[in-house]
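Hi everyone,

Forwarding the result from last night's run.
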Amino acid sequence: MPHKDPEVRKAYLEANKEKLAASQKAYREANREKVLAQRKVYREANKEKLAASQKAHREANKEKVAARAKAYQEANKEKVATYQKAYYEANKEKVAAWAKAHREANKEKVAARAKAYYEANKEKLAESQKAYREANKEKTATYSLRRYGFPEQYITPELVEAKVFSILIKRELKKEVQL
């Protein structure tokens, strides 16, 4: 028998690779439900072992795993975006808690990234801030009044309107001085 001697077994397997693969494939196709059930039982019985094996594979092949994930995301942008949006909607608190923990654990990285973004996008940020102030004059005026210590009960619509007017006058004066 070829299976008793390891050398003979190895030679047999090597010589009949395609034949054995075809035979195994035919069996899997003929007994699909049975094979799936066996695999499920195995996975459930060996969760820790499989998780450790997968972790070891990911750590040993970081670049390959990352490239494969990136390629999948590029090929399935809409599907990934839909999944991420649905996950976010279902787990808002969990995502917020994770983001907060990440920011606190990586303060230097987060600050460096924010600074790099600011340096790379100064003009864009200035334009968006200017557009926001123009669209929300009352909000910015109210914020300004609060910042300078006005008690909430004294901030009336008339006072906000006067503050908006004074801000507009200051802007115009700055423009004239710059010319």
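The CA atoms of residues 146 and 152 lie 7 Å apart.

Cheers,
N.
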